[in-house]
Design a protein that fits this description.
With 107 residues, this protein is mainly α.
């Protein structure tokens, strides 16, 4: 019995470590993407924001940033989709809310 509890405990610990590692990797990848966005390399920025979301699909900041990339590429439909996704994860995320309102004012 103790071995089963011990193995279960180890498995739970491993899962927590893996989750924390993936979240940290997602954040680092998001930061790298932001660097590309800041220098105007939209293709690389988009690639790394999408990669960050593979590691943490709840990273609402990456969806917002993808909306910025889409907007700069002239794709307003995709911009709206990314903003909606960002706000579905965190409805109080002010940058996404403000961008959504700005797009509505353009219509």
């Amino acid at each position: 019995h103790q071995f089963v509890k011990g193995k279960q405990g180890v498995d739970e610990l491993f899962e927590k470590i893996q989750t924390n590692w993936l979240a940290g990797y997602a954040d680092a990848t998001h930061n790298l993407a932001n660097s590309y966005l800041q220098i105007g390399n939209l293709e690389e920025a988009e690639q790394y924001f999408l990669e960050a979301l593979e590691y943490n699909p709840d990273l609402y900041q990456s969806y917002y940033s993808l909306a910025l990339v889409s907007y700069k590429q002239g794709n307003l439909e995709q911009t709206r989709k990314y903003l909606e996704r960002s706000l579905s994860i965190n409805p109080s995320y002010a940058p996404a809310r403000q961008a959504e309102q700005a797009l509505q004012n353009q219509d």
